[in-house]
Amino acid sequence: MLIKSEKQLLNFIKYSPVIIITLIAVLINILIYVQNEENFQKDLKIYKKNYIESKKRLAKFQVEKAYKDILRERKNIEQRLEDRLKTRVQEAYNIIENLHEKYSYLEEKELLNIIKESLREIRFNEGRGYFYLAKSNGISILHPITPEYENKDISNIKDSSGRYVYKDLIEHFKTQNEYFGEIEAVKPSFPNKKFKKVTYMKLYKPLSIVIGTGEYKEDFIDEMKSHIIKEYIQNLRYGKNGYVFIFDYDGYQLAHVKKEYIGKQRINLVDSKGFMITKEIIKQAKKGPGFISYIGSIMPETGEPAYKTTYIIGIDDWGWAIGSGFYNLDMLRYLETKKKELRDMNNESLRNTFFISLILCAILIALAFYVSSILENFFTRYHERIENEIQENRKKDMVLYQQSKMASMGEMLGNIAHQWRQPLSSVSTIASGTRIQKELGMLEDQEFYKGMETIVNTTKHLSQTIDDFREFFDPNRVKEQISTQILYDKAIQLISSRLTAKEIELKASIDNAALITYENELLQGLMNILNNAIDAFEDKNIKSKVIEFNIKYEKECKMPNCEIKECTQGKEGYILITIQDNAGGIKEENMDKIFDAYFTTKHKSQGTGIGLYMTYEIINKHLKGYISVENSEIIYNKENYKGAKFTIILPTKVQEG
To answer: Which of 328, 344, 360 is a domain's end point?
Structure first.
């Protein structure tokens, strides 16, 4: 018969699904809406982050590409300059060769005059370049810039460092036909300053004439800078508003999308927020590659200032700051487009969710009515089956508990027999000896009283033994406070005769502490483990048998597999009990089954397989503790043995439950 609460449950299942399902549907729709809004904001942030990152990567790529192009072009400056000078000298060489062939009939002096005047007016490199001629012995033939050198010996002329430049060249051309290198020279426009000049000379052997020309390195580098800016930087564009600009470290604009800015001094350029744009760009370039943000002076698409993030990299030896960036306005347009797309997607998702929830509500309501009718029809039978199973399990537990008690009782009776055998033998010996002495007239009062006193003490000992075993089998289940030392003494008193009979040494270490627990149940569990440890020595050739019995007080549970919240309830500390033998241990395949009901490794006539099962039930369920078993090494008489080690953790005060 169903109880009142169960009928109420059936009524709830039958009549409340509409409300519950509706509330769930509304809640789900609200949660989906909230989640969509959260995702919407997250997606916008992600789009913004990704856009900024992609634009930063693009700007960085463009700047680094321009930087690498500049380095590549700069790397080839020396070679280009050499090639240019060689080409010019080869032109003069060809002219001299043609004139020599044409006027070979003339005397050398006349021929040299014709050659000299033919080359004197030739200029190149925007008027900076010219040819000079000298005999290989150091006599200058042609020098358009300093004609006073002509027809003079220049081998003794020194440069600013005191080196005989031309003397070294005379020595060079004794073995070589050409020369390429640097010398120091003055410019006509700067007569008091020396400049590095790259020169190339070639020997025309038929007349022993050295033909040469040169280029001031600084002028050539300036020409190359201008070439790089015009050919590589100024025309570089990407996207709608992407371009690369260059400032020199003095603040002059070298490259910009607006050509009117080029060549202007813009060191004091400042945005509307007071940010010194040019100075900060130069500062970042000197510090190293990096990003800065400011309001740019011009956005190509609109022609108006706009917020800009720029990547800067510097070329220190040229004093250049190269940069490129992206505008905030582009990002805002991009995000607005994405925002509209996401909003449309969210609205569509919400509409679909709403219609699906309506359909699901209808289906679930119908299903709820159907399920409630099934539950109502079968709930009674389920209830009866559960009650039957509970009763069967209770009977089974009682049978197992009684079987465990009976098994323990059988072992205890054996222990009683061992405990009584020697005292009874002593009583019998004293009685028979006293009788014989009396019959022979040899009995003295002192011997008589001594024998009677021994018999009285022995019977008291036997009576105490009976009391000890009676307490063990006391059915009353009452929590009591007991010290660990007394607990140990009682357990050993019950098992000592078996230990003596089996020649097993007991080693113990006991911390004296108090605990409140069910004494008899704990003793029963300990006796099951101790009896199993003694039985483990059967049929094993072990000379030195030992069982270690330790009881320790611990402030905290230190077992690696022990979950304190399940196995203990006290906060006053824990009792750690370990029992270990040296009988060889438990087979690995049996380790996981050692606490199963009816599992035993003994012969059927010797074991029921419920002792350790009941011990597990007592420790874990009745005493709210924890028990585990493992194979462990033990050292006895300086030898290593393997044996089973049982570990029990108990609260110092067991709680009801």
So the answer is: 344
